[in-house]
Amino acid sequence: MHINYQLPENIKELLNTKRNEVKPAFAELIRQGGYVPPHMDLLIDAISILSMGKNILLKGPTGAGKTKFAETLSYLFNQPMFSVNCSVDLDAESLLGFKTLAYEDKKQVIEFVPGPVINAMTSGTLLYIDEINMAKPETLPLINGVLDYRRTITNPFTNEVITAKEGFGVVAAINEGYIGTVPLNEALKNRFIVIEVPYIEGEQLRNLIQTNTRLTNEKTIELFVKLSSDLVTAVSQGKLSEDAASIRALLDACDLSSIIPAKRAILRSIVDKLDEEREREFVMNLTETLF
Ligand SMILES: Nc1ncnc2c1ncn2[C@@H]1O[C@H](COP(=O)(O)OP(=O)(O)OP(=O)(O)O)[C@@H](O)[C@H]1O
Ligand SMILES: [Mg+2]
Question: Can you give the residue ranges of the AAA+ ATPase domain (predicted)?
């Protein structure tokens, strides 16, 4: 889905300078857009940060559109985006690449297959680091030099010193406080500029439901927007855990309710994911009053 964002002229110019650079390699990694910002400032700030060669850390709850946001930046800059998914298994090889045996004129040679960080650096494109706080604390410091003004790394597999090409940029995403996450190391956090990504509400949410789900009934869409707003309020009052208001789950419920009754769609998409009986009851009661 491509959205025509109402961006100020100077920001459009920033995008155009980048867009016009020829990028034949990795064109298949230019992503689709579609992020609906709660406020245009989010996009303006992100574009400004990236165009200055600084790193962005998107911070927000699950299903708030962080990945979509990053993909939209790739779309807007018309730049391929490599991506790394962090987990406890993330190691130097999955970030930087690995050595393998290959044949050259029937002779065996050792070849280095670059990973996402090296690829993005050498092609001067974007790198998306998802769930950055899921990695083991000792792994990411490997790329500290890549993330600061040096934009450089000594590839431990080849001993080659690699400096990022113009255009290289990093967007990371973090989902604080979830099971399996570790607090982000200060030195790492320090290398990013933070953009908070909240759940969208109201008019923007209505548009997203209309354009991104199978739900067409205006009255039902309105009720889902109201449900979402009540869920967000309950989260802010500490009555529900944050993911109860996830837009991802809400969109699933909207999709399903184009076929099955809305109440059951909500039960499956939102309620049954909640851990505590008290929370499940709360959302079911809310649903009863609305649908
Ligand atoms: N503001 C938004 N604009 C566009 N799509 C959105 C928005 N918020 C949520 N979505 C939709 O909700 C779903 C989840 O979004 P996405 O995967 O980007 O969330 P996330 O913040 O990366 O979640 P997680 O932390 O679980 O990875 C996608 O289908 C996405 O299109
Ligand atoms: Mg994501």
Answer: 52-201
The predicted model scores a pTM of: 0.93
Contact 1, 212 (CB under 8 A): yes
Q: Could you tell me where the beta strands, DSSP code E, fall in 60-167? A: 81-85, 97-104, 107-114, 126-130, 152-154, 161-163
Ligand 1 atom showing the smallest separation from residue 65 Cα: 18
Cα of 197 vs centre of ligand 1, distance in Å, is 10
Can you tell me the distance from the alpha carbon of 275 to that of 133, in angstroms, rounded to the nearest whole number?
Answer: 23
Token pair of 118, please? 């090296």
Residue ranges covered by each domain of the chain: 9-196, 202-290
- Report the distance separating Cα 257 and Cα 199, nearest Å: 21
Ligand 1 residue neighbourhood (C-beta within 6 Å): 34-36, 60, 62-68, 173, 175, 200, 208, 247-248, 251
Residue nearest to atom 13 of ligand 1 (CA): 248
DSSP one-letter code for 213: S
Question: Rounded to an integer, what distance in angstroms lies between the CA atom of residue 58 and that of residue 179?
Answer: 18
pLDDT digits (tens, 9 = 90+) for 89-128: 999 999 999 999 999 888 999 999 999 999 999 999 999 9
DSSP-assigned letters across all residues of 30-52: BPP-----SSHHHHHHHHHHHHT
Q: How far is the CA of 172 from the centre of ligand 2 (A)?
A: 10
**Secondary structure of residue 131 in the 3-state scheme:** coil
